[in-house]
Amino acid sequence: MGVTTLAPVLHSFDRHPGLRRWWRYALTSVVATLVSETTLLLVYGSGLLTASVAAIVASLAGTAPSYAMSRYWIWPEADRRRPVRQALAYWCISLACMAVASAATGWAAAHAQTGRLAHLVVVGAAYLVVYGLLWMVKFLLYQAWLFKAEARATSSQHDEVFEHLASGSP
Q1: C-alpha 158 chain-centroid distance
Q2: Least CB-packed of 3, 31, 94, 141 within 10 Å?
Q3: Which of 114-117's residues contact partners 24+ apart within 8 Å by CB, and which partners?
Q4: pTM above 0.85, yes or no
C-alpha cells in the first residue's frame, strides 16, 4: 500500500476527528495488548506464576504505555487541571479490568485440558477475549468521562453572560 493509496484515508481523518480518535485508540490497544499478552505468555509459560497472577502482571505491563498514549495522543485536549485524579481514575478502571481478566484466566486455566501447551493457549485466549469485551466499555468511559475535554467558555458565551448580567434580568 503506497502513500498515494493512504492519502484518502488520511484525509478522512482530518475531516472526522472522531475517526482519528477511534484509530488511535485501536492502535494504542494493539500496543498494550502486545505488551500484556507477551508478558502473560512469558511469565505463565515459564511457570513462574499462576494464570491469575500472570494476568495481573501482564495487565500492569500493558497499562503503563496505554495510559501515556491515551492521555497525550488519543485525547490531547483532555482536561489537565487534575492530573492525579485522572491518573487514579484510569488506574481504577484498569484495576477493575485486571480483576476480571485475572478471574477469567484463572477459571480458564482450571478448566483447560491437561498439558502445558493447552493451558498456555487457553489462558492466552481467555485473556484476549476478556480484554476484547472490555475494550469498547473502556473507550466509552474514557471518551465520556475520564478524558473529557476541558470546559472552556468561548468569547460568545462570555458576551452572552455579560449581556444577561448587564440587562439586570434574573
Answers
A1: 35
A2: 3
A3: 116/45
A4: no
